[in-house]
Design a protein that fits this description.
By secondary structure, the chain is of the alpha+beta class. The protein has helices at residues 4-7, 59-66, 89-98, 115-125, 130-143, and strands at residues 17-26, 33-43, 74-79, 82-83. It folds into 2 domains: 14-98, 3-Layer(aba) Sandwich (Rossmann fold); 109-150, no CATH class. The chain is globular, with a radius of gyration of 18 Å. The structure holds adenosine-5'-triphosphate and magnesium ion (MG).
Length: 150
């Protein structure tokens, strides 16, 4: 069944995320591990999915590839219609900052920065005025509760 959100989107809008025949192999020879094999996935804007599977089935591998943190051994990953393999390192970093939200299991925050600074820092990397970036960070943090983020 198509959700109301999806059916209201123009048909021409690009998929948010596409995995086409994506395989990721780690290691060589006797240490070779196929972490993900010929995976296909298409997500449209507004779609909500959960990736489920037993430990070692390749969930983190898939998310790392979808987030542009890793590159496939074979196949293609497209974010908003752009094949990550065709982008420069700087362009992939820009897509990670602007188009992909990723909560790591171990958070990966910068420990020397406050919570608000961790949120505003990526905006500043995109050229935002530091004061405006801090205001936007505080607004976002307030939306998820609490009021003391330093
Ligand atoms: N960097 C790596 N080098 C070698 N093998 C790896 C590497 N990363 C993952 N693997 C292997 O690939 C397979 C898939 O691992 P992955 O971490 O994606 O699974 P997972 O579904 O996220 O597991 P979990 O539920 O335990 O987090 C496992 O066999 C794992 O040992
Ligand atoms: Mg995992």
């Amino acid at each position: 069944m198509t959700s109301p959100v999806l059916s209201s989107l123009p048909q021409s809008s690009p998929c948010a995320l596409e995995l086409h025949d994506v395989t990721r192999v780690h290691g060589k020879d006797a240490r070779r591990v196929t972490a993900l094999s010929h995976a296909n996935l298409t997500l449209r804007p507004g779609e909500f999915v959960a990736i489920m599977g037993p430990s070692g089935s390749g969930k983190s591998t898939l998310l790392n590839l979808a987030g542009g943190l890793d590159v496939p051994t074979q196949g293609h990953v497209l974010v908003e219609g752009r094949d990550l393999a065709t982008l420069s390192v700087a362009e992939r970093a820009a897509i990670r900052r602007k188009s992909i939200g990723y909560v790591f299991q171990d958070f990966n925050l910068l420990p020397s920065l406050s919570a608000a600074e961790n949120v505003s820092f990526p905006l500043e990397l995109d050229g935002w005025n530091p004061r405006k970036a801090r205001e936007a960070a505080m607004q976002s943090l307030n939306e998820v509760g609490g009021s003391r983020y330093g």
